[in-house]
């Protein structure tokens, strides 16, 4: 039986590290706001996917203005974010009433490919979870106040999104107590007792956080043609 597929896109950034007044998800990238590139990636994967977009309520009007400006007419369920990412994701998950699979994705990862999205859904349907991750390219050291120590980078992964789960599993996990140490959805599910399955992400699936990330994202989009 094919499970219903949802994408829960969280976009609550304030643009602090980007050093702009406009939140980074609304900055223009190759003629379209970053967030619209992200949403389009999921629709390229599956035109029938159900998308839940979680935004700060203060950004609702701006989003509506951008949709009019760019003639962006997508059937999206808009949900109000919370005071933290944890609360925002929880609010978004509350919109899901039917069992299925949900890919939770950063709104500022606009270069995610259809292949990565598809792999996350296929693997989560089998393993209950599927979290995109990439190997480290550079050497790493662990530090404390006084010393540093070389670490074996082959034992570590950089975690990306999408992080995809069976809906009931992740909804129940988010019923747990919020903890500042839980920085992503995989850590929330893990704390609830679930095993996290990783799959190979992509180095192109960058998170736009600082000004140089926009330059890299533009170059990658240009290279795709």
Number of H/I helices: 7
Relevant CATH superfamily = Spore Coat Polysaccharide Biosynthesis Protein SpsA, Chain A
* Strand composition percent: 25-35%
Number of strands: 11
CATH architecture: Alpha-Beta Complex
What value does the average pLDDT take? Answer: 95
In terms of quaternary structure, the protein is: single chain
Radius of gyration: 18 Å
The order of strands across the largest sheet is: 5-4-1-6-10-7-11
Describe this entry's structure for a reader:
The chain has helices at 34-45, 60-69, 85-93, 114-127, 167-173, 185-191, 211-224, and strands at 4-10, 28-29, 32-33, 50-55, 76-80, 100-106, 129-135, 140-143, 148-151, 157-166, 198-200. It is α/β, with parallel strands linked by helices and 225 residues long. It has a single domain (4-224), classed as Alpha-Beta Complex (Spore Coat Polysaccharide Biosynthesis Protein SpsA, Chain A). The strands form three sheets. The chain has a seven-stranded mixed sheet with strand order 5-4-1-6-10-7-11, sandwiched between helices. The mean pLDDT is 95.
What topology emerges from the helices and strands here?
Elements: E1 4-10, E2 28-29, E3 32-33, H1 34-45, E4 50-55, H2 60-69, E5 76-80, H3 85-93, E6 100-106, H4 114-127, E7 129-135, E8 140-143, E9 148-151, E10 157-166, H5 167-173, H6 185-191, E11 198-200, H7 211-224
Parallel strand pairs: 1-4, 1-6, 4-5, 7-11
Antiparallel strand pairs: 2-3, 6-10, 7-10, 8-9
Helix pairs in contact: 1-4
């Amino acid at each position: 039986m094919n499970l219903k597929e949802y994408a829960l896109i969280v976009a609550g950034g304030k643009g602090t590290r980007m050093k702009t007044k406009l939140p980074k998800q609304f900055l223009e990238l190759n003629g379209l706001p970053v967030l619209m590139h992200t949403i389009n990636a999921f629709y390229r994967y599956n035109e029938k996917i159900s998308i839940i977009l979680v935004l700060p309520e203060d950004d609702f009007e701006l989003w509506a203005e951008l949709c009019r400006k760019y003639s962006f007419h997508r059937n999206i369920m808009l949900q109000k974010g919370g005071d933290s990412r944890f609360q925002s994701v929880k609010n978004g998950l509350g919109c899901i009433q039917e069992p299925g699979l949900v890919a939770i994705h950063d709104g500022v990862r606009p270069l995610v490919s259809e292949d990565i999205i598809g792999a996350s859904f296929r693997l989560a349907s089998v393993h209950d979870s599927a979290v995109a991750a990439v190997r480290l390219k550079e050497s790493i050291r662990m530090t404390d106040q006084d010393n540093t120590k070389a670490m074996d980078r082959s034992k570590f992964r950089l975690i990306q999104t999408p992080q995809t789960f069976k809906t009931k599993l992740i909804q129940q996990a988010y019923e747990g107590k919020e903890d500042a140490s839980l920085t992503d959805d995989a850590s929330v599910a893990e704390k609830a007792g679930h095993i996290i399955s990783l799959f190979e992400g992509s180095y192109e699936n960058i998170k736009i956080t600082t000004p140089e990330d926009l330059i890299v994202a533009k170059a990658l989009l240009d290279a795709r043609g």
